[in-house]
Amino acid sequence: MLEDIPKRWEVLSGQNKWKGLLDPLDSDLRRYLIHYGEMAQVGYDAFNWDRKSEYCGDCYYPKSQIHARTGYLKANPFRYNVTKYIYATASIKLPLCFIVRSLSKKASRVQTNWMGYIAVATDEGKAMLGRRDIVVAWRGTLQPYEWANDFDFPLESGVKVFPVTDSKHVPRIGSGWLDVYTASDAMSPYDTSSAREQVQAELKRLLEVYKNEEVSITFTGHSLGGVMSTLAAADLVHSRKNKIEAGLQSKQVPITVFAFGCPRIGDQDFKRTVNSHKDLNILRIVNVPDVAPNYPLFLYAEVGEVLQINTLNSTYLKRSLNWRNYHNLEIYLHGIAGMQDKSGVFRLEIGRDVSLVNKGLDALKDKYLVPSTWRCLANSGMVQMDDGTWKLDVHRYEDDDDDDDDESTNK
């Protein structure tokens, strides 16, 4: 029940590493996971993937509108205000499924992509969540992967992010992951600093604003977003930047990661580094037929606790050989909504609309009469000009400043 979440939020956020909550799946945790998964889904729904657009790689909506324009707000009691957009770049050549580039010669951010957002619970949201929750939501990847090639990253020393005293156990991380997280571009008008620096600066600001309240930080993401969530959370704890200094008192802010369909990130020494931080709680949600969490195949190790779902047990979905039908985030959220336990019983426990499955796929059985891939911009982003001609125009018209620290909307 929703009214129990404020009382149980610490347990639901992994205080006891989710012992006794995963099999069978706890009803409050089910709703909790869907909530954070939906916050990650906003990143997909708001991202401009169209390479024909001059603004490919950007977000469609300003911070003040992103939750409303993506449908997150309706019938949702968990209210947040978005305070910061995250941008990332790459210093090495990465597959298009990670950093998307516009085909337009006018494009201003050739190597820069919008990667997600930071949001803080409003007073209304705080009442429903039991504390002032700060969410870092990372977008994932939508373009098709070529698994053998796109995840074939050489392992690279992560010592600059995770300094360690034992030189024999330096954590190594996939070079592609590390690059998206740490690369910066001095010429970019949006991220002259790295994604890492942007996130840490905004979290520092918010922890100062809410230092006299009970606060949590929750990282959420799917696929690449799960990787970024894990790296950023582990980095924050490893560098001890999850502390609040209030007067003479110092307290640790609990850090939780919900990583959906997340590939492997680093080696055994990275796992050892992550596991050394007992106040870092990571839950990976893995769909049995999804191959992504099993890559890269060699030299990598998995971190965190695991909730295993299996959407093959859903009576609502078509059987498919298309890997996207098992990796898609909406498929994951459908699986969480119906999973009972490891016995394979599937029964929708909460009123999550099954039509969401077909938002970007043709995965729902035809008898439910929901068109496939139904979510798109009006006229695919084409706008009629005054002279009667049509033009692709999906620019994000700003009504707020990306660097504006607006604290007045937490009411």
Automatic annotation (TrEMBL):
Domain Fungal lipase-type per the UniProt entry, residue ranges: 135-297
Signal peptide: none
The UniProt record lists the keyword Magnesium: no
Lipid metabolism is among the record's keywords: yes
Keyword set, alphabetical order: Hydrolase, Lipid degradation, Lipid metabolism
GO cellular component, one term: cytoplasm
InterPro entries assigned to the protein according to its UniProt record, in alphabetical order: AB_hydrolase_fold, Fungal_lipase-type, PLA
Gene Ontology molecular-function annotations: phospholipase A1 activity
Name this polypeptide is given: Phospholipase A1
Species: Raphanus sativus
Organism taxonomic ancestry: Eukaryota, Viridiplantae, Streptophyta, Embryophyta, Tracheophyta
Gene this protein is translated from: LOC108818732
